[in-house]
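Revision sheet: structure tokens.
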Amino acid sequence: MPHLPPFRRLLRYAGIVILSWIALSWFVVLVLRFLPPWTSAMIMERRLDALVHGEQDFQLRQRWVPWSRISPWVPIAMVAGEDQKFPFHHGFDFDSIQNAIDAADDGKRLRGASTISQQTAKNLFLWNGRSFVRKGLEAYFTVLLELTWPKQRILEVYMNIAQFGDGIYGVGAASETFFHAPPAQLGLAQAARLAAVLPNPDRFRVDRPSSYVLERTHWIEQQVTQLGGPAYLKSRSPARDVRTARRP
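Predicted:
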């Protein structure tokens, strides 16, 4: 084998590292299609933060609950509140992204345009932040999830790792903490309340809802009804656009 110049050797080793990382990340995503994740990057980050800052009273609450043991109102409430095109897009809602850009150009408050697929990728694999590197990795893992997992699996994992309060992750821990009931027994109002805090669970409270959370809860209930309820997640074509309704 001919002797390669140092730069060529460096490129070769870099290529091997990159291809190995891609293969490993895809393998992990494939495994998690069938096995519950034992934790998430966001949960680990919060635990580390509590340890570093000596939060002696910090308590982590999270347990995996399969789709079959979650009320059908929970997933549709999250879709209605966070990502109404979830059943039909391929990981990215380009219309929402463009609307967010247009709103920012008009001087309005910048709103997030992340889909549930993107949020699942971020919560499961990445850290908090707004760097281009993190956004690039978020896009990469979003594509992997969309190619490897069915939509129901993406939503199932999202419901189990989303934060609903400080140290409270997943619908299982949230329903027991806030409603003293298993997630299978949650009704639309309770599911909408959980979905209402998802934009900022560090600020919004399920147990002591502000007027904003109550308004958003009511809006999500309306959206669930207009979408057609839990059957919407089994649709083959989008319902009429209901995003023209005022979004809290």
